[in-house]
Amino acid sequence: MKIPPIPGSTSPIVTQSASFSQLEMEPMSEIYNSLYSAVTYKKAAALDELNKAADECSTENWDGYNALPLTKSSYMESFEFIKMLPLWTPLASIGGTPDGEVAFEWQHGHSAMILTLSGAGKVVYAAILNGRRKFHGEEPFIDEIPTTITDFLNEFK
Known about the structure:
The protein is an alpha+beta fold. It is built from three helices and five strands, in the order H-H-E-E-E-E-E-H.
């Protein structure tokens, strides 16, 4: 895989004024490929989890207790959410809720966070950090993940 060029540059990594030999470029290419693969794998794994949840929760009464199927809008909003997650975000467990929403859950030690996306442009969340601090609320989710959510996710690095 080739490293994409920087706009206005003839070299894949550097500006026109700099030059690297092929031997110097190869290690950079390997680093890029390794990082790209890790990022791609992480996002692909999260999207696979979302697709599994969509399959498992696609019919009415999927849980045996009259649960609604996941809505298309909650699925699409969750897809966008995954695409926007910071690269350092650990993988979440992803599943459906009885009212047709998508739930994301992170756990680490004495900390846990769950958030749901309904497709209505909002994130509903609850978190307990270090077994003591409890938080819950609702944030708008339109074109970026709310800072409140990324701040909480930072606890799970």
